[in-house]
Amino acid sequence: QVQLVESGGGLAQPGGSLRLSCAASGFTFSNYAMSWARQAPVKGLEWVSGIYSDGSETYYADSVKGRFTISRDNAKNTLYLQMNNLKPEDTALYYCIARRGVVATSALGDYAYWGQGTQVTVSS
Questions:
Q1: Partners of 21 in the β-ladder
Q2: Closest of 106, 67, 61, 111 to residue 85, by C-alpha
Q3: In whole angstroms, what is the distance from residue 17 CA to residue 15 CA?
C-alpha cells in the first residue's frame, strides 16, 4: 500500500523557516520523481517544487525560487522541503506527491500518489 506521510508543518513568523519531510512507503521510491504542491485558502492547487528520481535536477515555482530547497534521500525513502524567508502568502496545506519515472513535471495531473498534507501557517 502506497503511503506518503508529510510532517514538519506548523506556525512560523514572516522571515522564519520550516523544514517539511515526507516519508514514503509501499513503492520503490528511487523510481519516482517527487514534488511538493500546496493549496492556500480560497486558492487552487499550486505546484511548488520538483526533483528528479535520482535527485540530479530540481525545479521551483517562481514564487518560491531562492527561498525553498527541495531534496531527497533515496536510502531513507524521504523527501524534504527546506523553506526559508517565509511569507504570509506561503500559508497553505503542503502535499508531497509522487510520479513514476525520472522527470519531475509541474503538471499536477501527472502525479498518481498524494499524501494527506501538512499545514504551514506564516503569521506574526
A1: 7, 80
A2: 67
A3: 7
